[in-house]
Design goal:
Layout: E1 6-11, H1 21-29, E2 32-35, H2 37-42, E3 50-53, H3 58-66, E4 73-78, H4 86-91, E5 99-102, H5 107-115, E6 123-126, E7 144-148, H6 154-164, E8 171-176, E9 184-189, E10 201-206, H7 236-246, E11 253-257, H8 263-271, E12 276-281, H9 284-296, E13 303-306, E14 321-324, H10 332-340, E15 346-351, H11 354-367, E16 370-374, E17 377-382, E18 385-390, E19 394-400
Parallel strand pairs: 1-4, 1-5, 2-3, 2-4, 6-7, 11-12, 11-14, 12-13, 14-15
Antiparallel strand pairs: 7-10, 8-9, 8-10, 15-19, 16-19, 17-18
Keywords: Cobalamin biosynthesis, Methyltransferase, S-adenosyl-L-methionine, Transferase
GO molecular function, one term: protein methyltransferase activity
Organism: Gluconobacter thailandicus
Length: about 400
């Protein structure tokens, strides 16, 4: 195996004094050292080769580094380059043995040390290039969060978001330039005004929920009231059953065909941060509403495709799982969905009409799987008395795509 041509060195606010002898040697021997202006300034006394600023856009700079393959190149990064850092991005484009990394303590480690928090009990969320709504699912009572800030305005944005959702009593710790001579920390309640903040900062949060705080439950089957809708929504109890049959696994991609309010796709993404979903909805008003629901419930990454299936399915990323929840009028959609799904992919479809049930029955007869009829009854008034009133029954078809020889 050839010696690594690319080194990634983590450097903190304490500069060269905090670097190991190995890290110092690597920087000194590099033909080219690439880093942000702050990193290059911190390591200036060690650099013997050419110093080059890491510019923008980020993807162009990654490409520039890769074009230097074979020459001794060192990239400087903040703290631990493999924790929300450039190291993992570069590694995706390299063969094993091409990269060598010497990390420094991450800003997360510094923050936990200053706050006396157990690092394994803390949830880390980055708001660098991400929407503030990403925070929403993590706002759980008594949780401890560390938020990686995009700039000096992030702490104020975080505090306003917390207060607006009923978490104004939460204790917020703003930590600036951790690990260096200019380190500073101050604390406040989220509902209080905060002073100006250095661009290099992160935020520690001790969540305290008010009585009416908007806490997103961890279970499947969220209250229908959490979604804006026009009646076209997979109702709570049916949704909980449907999600259990869809059986989300980390990193999987879901197609939610005929998404309505987007409730299935949104809850799919809430099950794990690496899950992705594509909501396909032909009605433009509903498609726009899905986007608003996704923001409110903390999954702004939900992809929304406005169009009619099966035509709208032709150019989408391949799914691992498909849910068909819109009105079924033809078997054509199943043909395209089965072609898109890999062997072992899962397909679940719900129908409430007789015509839809007939289509599901035909699929069951041809391909096997399971057919289940789900009935829900809710207490209602009958004059001065009470009785259970049945909702429309749902027929559910579930199957796994098998190979031709199975």
């Amino acid at each position: 195996m050839k010696a690594p041509w690319l080194s990634v060195i983590g450097i903190g606010e304490d500069g060269v004094e905090g670097l190991s002898s190995l890290a110092r040697q690597i920087i000194a021997q590099a033909e080219t050292v690439i880093g942000g202006e702050r990193h290059l300034k911190l390591a200036a006394s060690l650099i013997r080769g050419t110093a080059e600023n890491w510019g923008a856009p980020f993807s162009d700079e990654v490409r520039r580094v890769l074009e230097m393959r074979g020459r001794p190149v060192t990239v400087l990064a903040s703290g631990d380059p493999f924790f929300f850092g450039v190291g993992s991005t570069l590694a995706k484009h390299l063969e094993p043995g091409e990269l060598f990394c010497v990390p420094a303590p991450s800003s997360i480690a510094w923050a936990c040390a200053r706050l006396a928090w157990a690092q394994q009990d803390v949830r880390v969320i980055s708001l660098c290039g991400r929407s503030i709504e990403t925070l929403a699912p993590h706002l759980q009572p008594a949780a401890r969060l560390i938020v990686l800030s995009a700039d000096g305005s992030t702490p104020d944005t975080v505090c306003r978001f917390l207060a607006d959702r009923g978490f104004g009593k939460s204790r917020v710790h703003i930590l600036e330039r951790l690990g260096g001579p200019d380190e500073h920390m101050h604390s406040c309640r989220a509902e209080e005004d905060i002073a100006s903040v250095e661009a290099l900062n992160l935020v520690g949060i001790e969540i305290q929920a008010d009585e009416n705080a908007r806490v997103i439950p961890l279970a499947s089957g969220l209250d229908d009231a959490l979604f804006k809708h026009d009646g076209q929504i997979t109702k709570r109890e049916i949704r909980a059953i449907t999600l259990s049959i869809l059986a989300p696994r980390a990193g999987e991609v879901l197609w939610d065909v005929g998404a309505g309010a987007g409730s299935i796709a949104i809850e799919w993404m809430l099950r794990h941060p690496s899950n992705r979903a594509i909501a396909i909805e032909q009605n433009p008003d509903r498609a726009a509403r899905i986007g608003r629901n996704a923001l409110t419930l903390g999954v702004p990454g939900l992809q929304i495709v406005e169009g009619r299936a099966p035509e709208a399915l032709t150019s989408l990323d391949r799914p691992d799982v498909v849910f068909i929840g819109g009105g079924l009028t033809s078997e054509d959609i199943f043909t395209q969905v089965r072609e898109a799904l890999p062997i072992g992919g899962r397909l679940v479809a719900n129908a409430v009409t007789l015509e839809g049930e007939a289509i599901l029955a035909a699929q069951h007869a041809k391909y096997g799987g399971t057919l289940t009829r789900i009935g829900i009854e809710r207490l209602d008034t009958v004059g001065r008395l009470h009785a259970f009133r049945p909702a429309m029954r749902v027929t559910q078809y579930a199957t796994t795509v098998l190979g031709e020889d199975e």
